[in-house]
Amino acid sequence: MTPPELLHRFAEEAFRAGSPAVAGELLRMAARWPAPVPDPVATHADGLKLLAADRLADAEAAFVAAIRATADVPVWHEHLGVALARQGRFAEAAVSLRVALRLDPAPVATWQNLAQAYRDLKNLPAAELALREAVNRQPDSPDAAFSLVATLNDQKKYTDAESLSAQLTERFPDHPLAWSALGISRSMNGDHEAAIGPLERALALAPTAESHSNLAAVFGKLKRWADCERLAREAVRLNPDHAGGWANLGNCLRDQGNYTDAETALLRALTLNPNDPDAAGNLALTIATTGRHADALRHYDHSLALRPDHVEVRFNRSIAYLTLGDFARGWPEYEARLQTEQLKKSQREYPVPRWTGQPLAGKGILLVAEQGLGDGLQFLRYAEPLAKLGARVVVHPPAALVRLARTAPGVADVIDQPNAAVRVDFHCPLLSVPMGLKTTLDTLPSRVPYVTPPADAVAKWRERMKPVPGFKVGIVWQGNPEHAGDRWRSVLLSRFAPLAAVPGVTLCSVQKGHGSEQLKTCDFPVLDLGAELDGDLADTAGLFVNLDLVLGIDTAPLHLAGALGLPAWIALAFNNDWRWLRDRDDSPWYPTMRLFRQPALGDWNGVFARLADELRIATPRGN
User: pTM of the predicted model, to two decimals?
Assistant: First the structure.
């Protein structure tokens, strides 16, 4: 049988198997087939020499010439596939490797090469099937099994990967890669503590740069920064060209606030491995954390070009767009937040379609709160513009916001249980409404107040505050410690000492929960009202209208003051949250709010000195 005839036969089989693209490629190869060379064995041998010399195009030509003369030698097709893959022509490589396996399905190395071609094509299910075939054919060789574990993890089949890894440690107890595979699988499955033991075993068996770097990554996830940094530094000492070690060192340094050295390390990692989407994304995040969002976009773009489905990077890029005020690109990208690990598990299925901008006249829409209380307060304002489009707006807010939500313009009904029966035509996550309305800086709904405190709460707190003298300033210094950026936004109560020294000022704590314990050791006068608040924001709102000013860090009480249209001063970290934009001391979201920004990362001294100066001017005695 001539080579073109053989290729035609394979093409027919591929077409019957439902692979018309493969069939077409085989037919094109048959059509291009020239006359055979006189000595195909010698030509193939020449091709191997050219391949070893990295003369890939010449090697390809030699292999093709040999195959044209004798098409039924499987290893020649395999070598052609290798030459094609090394040129980045992965689809063609996969065709050649499949031909080789059709001729001889026994060689495990060919199955592994085919799996790698599929991985390069982002076809992970096909890569998994090829690797399973390799493992089944040679169960005593661990290499294919290790690749299969990595492929399972890449598909987020963490339980399967961990199970296979555990089997490998039993079959190959002295093989460091078996223990590494188990530790990595456990970590990727979220059990970082359980990953330490296997990775320490791998390190003991082979103290390489790779084993140090793997363990460093797990310690980083556990926020054991000293261990993480020690291991990552050892990894790059052992191998200065180990990209993973530099990446882990950079992430560790960033999370400790050493952004300059973190950026250097991550740039080194990316230089060593320009095709690592995680290194590019983490470099972008590090740059953005220093306030250079425009510079970060280039690296976010690079990361997503390499891995378009990387939701964490897409979400981070949306934050850069929104911080820069580019809402047109920011809102659509911000939808990626719903697929992040933080929010994905909390998503519910609804029997009605998701609203993304469809006409709302005569329709009902359920707005579902997400993330924190501050987000719920900020975006509750969107009930009114939706109502003006003719919608009947039903809101499902956090429990602490239920009473206040009933007072918001445009809200027709409020449900306080996730499974409450409600008749609507659409549902929408609250923070997705701006995308549906195509909100820009010029069109965002900025009218305040848009919530009203209950009369009984106002009266209660009016009586409570009557005996309190002076210019009453409600303060808050600590946010939710589980918030990703809390280490930068929260401060110690002691920071407020310069404000307590302003004549005529009475500081009134509205802090509840985390941070309130600092009142016990505070060495300046603070009236603790947080202990008297009942946890319902309607009660807090009743207090706020009886204060002269609300002042604090970026957390829910400041959003509440802004939504009430009350004077509010917010102390912002240099790497502030996206909603406060950049380089301005006012907020389009809250017209009565003033922004006091860190002049440099970590410089709270400057912020609180300025707050004290402004407070002296604002008090009646200052005036």
Answer: 0.84
